[in-house]
């Protein structure tokens, strides 16, 4: 089934002056891939991956360009221009993505960036953006909300267990830390005491599930958690000691910022690794730090 605002692998069926025509379905008909997007060496009968959207004349068209996001995804996009109907956002294609005034939390301004969700307008069937992203987030402890399209659900997604790696889009600053969007589906929170690096709205990074709350939101960390991570970092720390005359000046009372600057781990992870090495009788501890036995 041909889906607007998504990627498809389609077969080339004929060539015309304006480009190649790709085989669609009964509803879409044949789809034009304009000459500017035709890769060298492509021939009739071959298949090609394309993204489908509507051009300036509202015709279904294919492109080999990759937008910053597709239908059903969240993104951090810049406002390119505005008119009396709404704002137009840069998303990596020739035609900018429209966000009508009714879908804006505040009037969008040229040059500023916004967290948005991309969807197909139910009335016009055009692609559009909405800044009212809360409508499209699901609680982590139940099935998706009624507002979330069924095709938004990834049934093969990994269970939300403690320590599971996830994709994290930083959403907005709060007095607790940062809200974020997890795996393009859930709302999460990173607390200030877990942050040891510069962070801004729109950043994407790998994070780790810490706790799924009763309200369906997820607390996450930027560091891997669990026993295996402790063992992995303990080996890193042990190697550091061997390479630095058997001594590290960072101990239990050292500032978390110094620990992160040197080892890129949280103070909690550092203390767990130190404890592991101490129980294995590989190090000793004193006011000057840790030492190899």
Descriptive overview:
The structure is a single chain. This protein has 293 residues and is mostly beta strands. The chain contains three helices and 18 strands. The strands form four sheets. The chain has a five-stranded antiparallel beta sheet with strand order 3-2-1-4-5, with no helix packed on it. It has a five-stranded antiparallel beta sheet with strand order 8-7-6-9-10, with no helix packed on it. α1 packs across α3. The longest helix has 17 residues. The radius of gyration is 25 Å and the shape is elongated. The N and C termini lie far apart (65 Å). About 5% of the residues have low confidence.
Helix-strand makeup class: mainly beta
Please provide the count of β strands. Answer: 18
Strand order across the biggest sheet? 3-2-1-4-5
- Characterize the largest beta sheet: strand count, sense, and whether it forms a barrel: 5 strands, antiparallel
Overall geometric form: elongated
Poorly predicted segments: 142-156
Mean pLDDT: 87
Q: Report the helical percentage.
A: 10-25%
C-alpha-based Rg, rounded: 25 Å
- Please indicate the percent range of residues in DSSP E strands (runs of 2 or more): 35-45%
Order of helices and strands: EEEEEEEEEEEEEEEHEHHEE
Please count the helical segments: 3
